[in-house]
Amino acid sequence: MILVLLAVSSAAIASAQIQFGVKAGYNSATYTVSGTGSSEVNPKSKSGFSGGALVSVPLFSSCFLQPEIVYSQQGASFSENGETAKFNYDYLNIPVLFKFQHESGLFAETGPQIGFLLSGKVEEGGISVDNKDQSQTTDFSWAFGLGYKLQDLGLGIDLRYNLGITNVNKPSTDGSSGSDGSVKNSVFQFGLFYMFK
Length: 197
What we know:
Elements lengths: L1 H14 L3 E16 L11 E15 L2 E18 L2 E19 L4 E19 L2 E4 L7 E13 L4 E10 L17 E14 L2
Antiparallel strand pairs: 1-2, 1-9, 2-3, 3-4, 4-5, 5-6, 5-7, 7-8, 8-9
């Protein structure tokens, strides 16, 4: 997939001017849980920050290839017996999006994303414990988004949903997913971006 994207990007760059941009926004992140004991688990959303850089490569009329590199605060919170535990996970995400943009400035985007785990901690009762060793170091997801760009100013907004594909729990030594079953990232992102002229 990477080789195909590089080939497409190289061909597009050779015949069109690319644009660079920066972005920042708000995350509402949680987990979708299935498998053993999932009916007893009710994860709640957790607020976070996302920010990074993007490149817009024209492919053909109204269509663009948009690779990004984004720092993203994710995870979830869990409440039980009056106690709240927060899973604070930081990722470096690299989405590669196919974007269709109407002349009005409205656009839709979708594509795969790979995330690299930077840190993973569980916070409860004022105590923070490192949990990175119990988690997958890479996370695959699929992104869906809508937005609007002010063409003359280069400013824009977008609303994106990242649907987790990878079980973020590290498998146990016997190959199972452990007692917590399957846990996948589920992240809504609201962002602002600016494209340099």
